[in-house]
Specification:
- Helix 4 links the parallel strand 4 and strand 5.
- The protein has 6 helices and 5 strands; from the N terminus they run H-E-H-E-H-E-E-H-E-H-H.
- Strands 3-2-1-4-5 form a 5-stranded parallel β-sheet.
- It is of the alpha/beta class.
- The protein has a domain of 106 residues: Rossmann fold, CATH 3.40.50.150.
Length: 156
């Protein structure tokens, strides 16, 4: 679902992939985008990709807790696919006015059954929705005026 939403907004755009990991998801958009930049804190991930990157795909190593290492309004679209929520504190600065920022994050109910299946190994999850509350706080602190959140559940 997230990939289909990304596909709808990245065509012919300058795109930022926050928390790109090894870069395969980043590189998959190369044929559709004007330029895509993958950002991850772990350089060993992003330098291990095969084959070599197309000319419109680039990778940076940086910790989002120190801010994003890009110019103001450098990107048309940014997405964060299970990446660091600290990026939301600075992402508004690097996305053009009217641009789009998409995120996909594990929720509060992820692995809720582990404490039941493995008592003593996993603690029960705290009450409430601390993951959602943290995400909302980051979005607010980052000055993102309009945020639409959807809760999607799936079973694998």
């Amino acid at each position: 679902m997230f990939a289909s939403e990304i596909e709808q907004v990245v065509r012919d755009k300058n795109v930022l992939d926050i928390g790109c990991g090894h870069g395969a998801f980043t590189m998959s958009w190369g044929p559709l985008v004007e330029q895509i930049t993958g950002l991850d804190v772990t350089s060993d991930f992003i330098h291990s990709g095969d084959p070599p990157c197309p000319a419109n795909v680039r990778f940076f190593t940086s910790n989002t807790k120190a801010g994003l290492p890009f110019e103001r309004e450098e990107f048309d679209v940014a997405y964060n696919r299970r990446g660091p929520t600290s990026a939301y504190l600075d992402v508004k600065r690097v996305v053009k006015e009217g641009g789009m920022i998409l995120g996909l994050h594990p929720g509060d109910k992820l692995s809720v059954e582990l404490s039941e299946w493995f008592p003593g190994l996993f603690e029960p999850l705290p009450p409430g929705t601390p993951v959602l509350e943290n995400l909302l706080q980051r979005l607010e602190q980052g000055g993102l005026g309009h945020a639409e959140l959807r809760n999607v559940s799936s079973i694998e």
